[in-house]
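pinging the channel bc i need a second pair of eyes. not urgent but kinda urgent?? the chain im working w is below, pasted from the shared doc
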Amino acid sequence: MQLPMPQVITQLNDWKSIRQNLTGKSIGFVPTMGALHEGHVALFERSIAGNDLTVGSIFVNPAQFNNPDDLKNYPQPFEKDLEIMNRLKIDYLLFPSYDQIYADGYVYKITESEFSQELCGKYRPGHFDGVLTVVMKLFNLVRPSRAYFGEKDYQQLKLIKGMAEAFFMELEIVSVPTIRENDGLALSSRNQRLSGEDRAKAPVFYQLLSSGLSTENIKTELARNGFQVDYVEQYGNRILGAVFLGKVRLIDNVEI
């Protein structure tokens, strides 16, 4: 009988045995926290098109949540996620427990001391330590040829690229453009937590980031429209922002 795809691996020792037999094949890797949407699908499709095998992971990483309520409320629809991966014919899914990923108790961690303190890092202390640490662990486990990340999390993308370069990691970090709803809202697993009223208002965030207004005027207009603004700043050729609608934090960025 044909096994369903992907092959779900919950024990890291099992994965290590499997990985030993995959030498000579190009491996694309898409790390996720689950609650998959079309943005994740775009990452998987790029990986499938560019590699012999595609590996995904689902791990809701407590180390990157500075807000315990955000972690508690993070959606985890595993069966739905598995259906999406099955439809895409992903080869392997890593689904490890916290105790396996953090057998050291999160004593050892990766820290970037400059850019990670700006933008989202300024408002989410320790967040990028958690992101970089878990991504490094997953890279060492999967040993991919290429790993795929969305441009919506632009600061995360830049930091992961920088980490891979700084530690001479033999993989390519591939960036994939942000996927949006028809009204412009960037796809995010957190969008499903928006109330109906806030969901209707949310596209204004993208509209203002794209408006050509100054960052100060964008912040003023966001506040006038009921958003709580963490930041709106220019970084290189992009305008990046983070806002709250109710208790839901949204991030986005646009190229200038």
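so The CA atoms of residues 164 and 171 lie 8 Å apart. and The chain is about 40% helix and 20% strand. — does that match what u expected or am i reading it wrong
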